Amino acid sequence: MISLVDPMSEGPEMNQHKALILDEVRKYHQDVEVAGEFVPGVTEIWPTGAVHDVEDRVALVEAALELRVAGGSRARRFESVFARKMKRRKALLANSGSSANLLALSALTSHRLEDARLRQGDEVITVAAAFPTTVNPILQNGLVPVFVDVELGTYNPTVEAVARAIGPKTRAIMIAHTVGNPFEVAEMARLAEEHELFLIEDSCDAVGSTYDGEPVGTFGDLTTVSFYPAHHMTMGEGGCVLTSNLLLARIVESLRDWGRDCWCEPGESNTCLKRFNYQMGTLPHGYDHKYIYSHVGYNLKITELQAALGLSQLDKLDDFCAARRRNWRRLREGLEGVPHLLLPEATPRSDPSWYGFVVTVDPRAPFGAKELVDFLEDRKIGTRRLFAGNLIRHPAYADQDYRVVGELTNTDIITTQTFHIGVYPGLTDEMIDYVVASFKDFVRARG
Ligand SMILES: Cc1ncc(COP(=O)(O)O)c(C=O)c1O
């Protein structure tokens, strides 16, 4: 039977049912959330993971009961709260961090930027020791990535390396704060300004990290965040573009929402009060503004269910970041002095909100990273590579147009010698101590 009842206009009886359902959800949560005992070598120690509580479960079910699945009031509330949290004027939700990167870079090609826009063949400086979708938007927009090497230990490029790569066609810099460790972003922003380049900070792994006491993402023109479960907070899938430049924000919104020129929310009309009074392109005067397209856009919006989970997770973000820092410190102190391992270093003047704990096995060590990884995995200690290692060694990039400046020596070392383990808030001290002991057991036997 088709229901024409507006689920938002709940009568008293509806509300009572909803309260009952949500009470049952709380009980269900207690049933399924029995914390298992940690058994070393048997219990999986995940390299990443989302941490959910009863409020997340209730928030999702409550949103589902309303049956308003398309992004609406919760999505807009999230954007407003998150923009304030990240100290940016605008936050625009997208359906993933990869989509956020695509939107941020594509925005720089908009005709609305006039002479400042990026055009086909222009260059964007980035790194090859990257997650692929930090680089892919450059190629997807017909631009040319220029790869520089990174440092071992911080896993970021230096400002000098980026400066050396600037050429006549360079128009932008797009780099991630690797596993939460800020690159020298204040200096990078100064370099960008001196050379009239745009700077995009990929902060997908770095929510909560600071540089010179300021949050990452506040230095560049645009920044991006991921809400995939591996990240600092989650929506299941989700991402966000943030900027304080209102023109860039308008362009990102248009690109995200099919390329339309209109900014009315779904269900709204004529908020500009001149819906039938525009004349754009060669369209007839008065063509409905809701259906005028000023960009070749996408649909990269999120749903209300994702936003509901996001709002609930946002309440816990500071605690999540604190737990990540605590777990990273415990690993760092525990592994200090273990031979043959290069341990991670925070960039000077930064306070990273870590995504993971990166280890490089010294190429001169009597064992390889693969043997160590196999040993850890056997003990149920999950590991992950530092994303793509050297991106240009992957088949996808074999026939792409790019430029490399200098040697990618460290990037190649990362490809064979580097991996990371988890610091996510679901890990306990007991688990971390077992991880430390396992590294030591391996090195003692093989070192
Ligand atoms: C640095 C970086 N950028 C972008 C992304 C893509 O985010 P998503 O998985 O939400 O598309 C990731 C994913 O882990 C990442 O690590």
UniProtKB/TrEMBL annotation:
<dbReference type="Pfam" id="PF01041">
    <property type="entry name" value="DegT_DnrJ_EryC1"/>
</dbReference>
<dbReference type="GO" id="GO:0008483">
    <property type="term" value="F:transaminase activity"/>
</dbReference>
<dbReference type="InterPro" id="IPR015424">
    <property type="entry name" value="PyrdxlP-dep_Trfase"/>
</dbReference>
<protein>
    <submittedName>
        <fullName>Lipopolysaccharide biosynthesis protein RfbH</fullName>
    </submittedName>
</protein>
<dbReference type="GO" id="GO:0030170">
    <property type="term" value="F:pyridoxal phosphate binding"/>
</dbReference>
<dbReference type="InterPro" id="IPR000653">
    <property type="entry name" value="DegT/StrS_aminotransferase"/>
</dbReference>
<dbReference type="GO" id="GO:0000271">
    <property type="term" value="P:polysaccharide biosynthetic process"/>
</dbReference>
<dbReference type="InterPro" id="IPR015421">
    <property type="entry name" value="PyrdxlP-dep_Trfase_major"/>
</dbReference>
<comment type="similarity">
    <text>Belongs to the DegT/DnrJ/EryC1 family.</text>
</comment>
<keyword id="KW-0663">Pyridoxal phosphate</keyword>
<dbReference type="InterPro" id="IPR015422">
    <property type="entry name" value="PyrdxlP-dep_Trfase_small"/>
</dbReference>
